[in-house]
């Protein structure tokens, strides 16, 4: 039986991004050994979208109130890398991780499955 999902973010500065996940996003974690942190994520869901291109995977964080969340991020000095755009499925933006990678964030306008 499937008991969970494991998401991997590849980083050019893993230590700084781990600190960001712990201290800025507030995700609790465990040390899996030798400082290798694994974080508990909020509830999750998975969707399968059709594509004409090569298969790929994406990772987005979801929030209930994008404007409030962005205000919290700005107060912590987090860089918002994309202006909020209105999509048919939600309000989308992204934040900058310390490694320089972007982490997309959105407020869904669609029904969500993570509470089932």
TrEMBL record:
Pfam families: Glyoxalase (PF00903). Residues 3-108 form the VOC domain. Gene3D superfamilies: 2,3-Dihydroxybiphenyl 1,2-Dioxygenase, domain 1 (3.10.180.10). This is VOC domain-containing protein. It comes from Streptomyces spororaveus.
